Amino acid sequence: MSETPTFALWHKLAGKPGGKQLFSAAMCVRVPYFRTVLPSVRELRPGHCEVTAPRWWGVYNHIRTFHAIAACNLAEIAMGMLAEATVPTTHRWLPKGMSVQYVAKAETGLRAVASLPELPEFGAEGFDLEVPVTISDANGKPVVTGTITIWVTPKKR
What we know:
This protein has about 160 residues and is an alpha+beta fold. It has one domain (about 5-155): Hotdog Thioesterase (Thiol Ester Dehydrase, Chain A, Roll). The chain is about 25% helix and about 35% strand.
């Protein structure tokens, strides 16, 4: 199975000094809205992605905590990078829906972890793939949990 260009770039850069930061910057060039949370991809492999974002004034809400929608943006980054590392080049994926629970105030920088319990089979039929995401604060306490559903289909030839 060949890698997506995104996952190939990760493999090229991640092990080099500053490579993860360069990868994260390139990701934000490709998807400009992601840069609003200053994301940094920390780990990426099929079925798993970890992304961090610092607490800074650009993500504050009215009580100076990490805004709920900024946290959702971080969750979408983790899901999207997981999809790029997991879905083969013979298929495509599109976000279909997101369900989130805000379980605690986010008063620090955050870490989003998207992780599949097992890798799916990619066949001839389209299917919903539910990607669980947990966003935790700097102390490891979950502040947002959710599931992002993506629609996966074979590419049209």
